Each structure stands twice: as structure tokens, then as C-alpha cells.
Amino acid sequence: MSIILALLLSTHTVLTEGATPMDSVAVTLFQDRIAEYVTLRHQSTHWLSLKGVDPDASDGVAFRRALADTIRLARRRAQPGNIFHSAIAPAILQLLRSELAARQPEERRAIFAEVPRVLTLRVNDRYPAGDPVATMPAGLLLLLPPLPPELQYRFLGRTLILLDVDANLVVDVLPYSLPRYP
After folding, report:
1. Counting beta carbons within 10 angstroms of the beta carbon of residue 173, is it exposed (0 to 12), middle (13 to 18) or buried (19 or more)?
2. What is the tally of helices (H) and strands (E) in the chain?
3. Which residues span the domain enclosing 57?
4. What is this structure's pTM?
5. Fewer beta carbons within 10 Å, N or C terminal of the chain?
6. In this structure, is residue 170 part of a structural domain?
């Protein structure tokens, strides 16, 4: 299984014209950091269950808040780039920019119309309450390194974020990922 995963990661390439393939070492490091986060998340979930926090009570709202608080405490020193590390961030930025530049202006406007406007955003912030969760274009998702089901790529303002969907928690940020298109 680990050999298959290594082969998949080493063959992960960017498919857009003008973009360069993501370095397999950078993707592997990114995936390792994602795996570390998911392990911490599972440990937090287990700890909460031992403390008697019921994931089903009140539609799970209290559990999701407690999960976010537990993860935030465990990652209190988390900084931007802990997961979007310096070896992969430039490749992701180049990929996003080249993919968006290749789209028609109407398509770009449609993508940007869904993106909530946020002035400040930090690692460990909650996703802003009331703001829509803009969907990522499927074409972009196919080009980015895959994520486990607990995490999603999202745009918030001009920033690409990793969002923990259950904890509603910003796990990492890649500022200025989106250009200033209309």
C-alpha cells in the first residue's frame, strides 16, 4: 500500500499548460504534514470521547466546537506555512495563477463572485460564521495534491485555506493565492 501511495505521489503532475509539475518531494512533505494533522485530529476526537463529549448531542454543534478548541490548543503555535510549506507553496501559487489565467473572463468572475471577502485571516481561526463556503472549481481540485475527507481547499478573500470541515477550523493559509481579478 505504501509503495502504491509513493508511486501516486511521485507521478502527481500539473496538467495545465505553462505550469510546471509539482516536485514529488514537496508533495510528499505536504502529504506527511497533512497526515500529522489528521493524526492529531483523530487523537483530539478520541480524547473528547473519553471526556464524554457526545458527537451526536445538539446535532454535533458542541462536539465540533470542542474539537476546534482542542485542535487549536494543540496547535497554538501553528503558523502559516506549517502545511503549505515553502517547497510546495510556490508550485501551488503558480498552478492556481496559470489555471485561472487560462480561463475566460466570465469564468473567473463566476469563481470570484462566490469567494467571501475577508480582510484578516489566521491559522486556527474559525471559518467566518455566516459566510458562504465557496466551492473550489473541480478543475483546480484535480490539479492540487489530494486531501483526506476531513480537509478541503477553499478560497477566503484572496487566500487559499485548508479547512477542517467538521471543526470549521482554518488549518493553514496561503495568502495572496488569488490575483486581483474583478
Report:
1. buried
2. 6, 3
3. 2-174
4. 0.82
5. N
6. yes
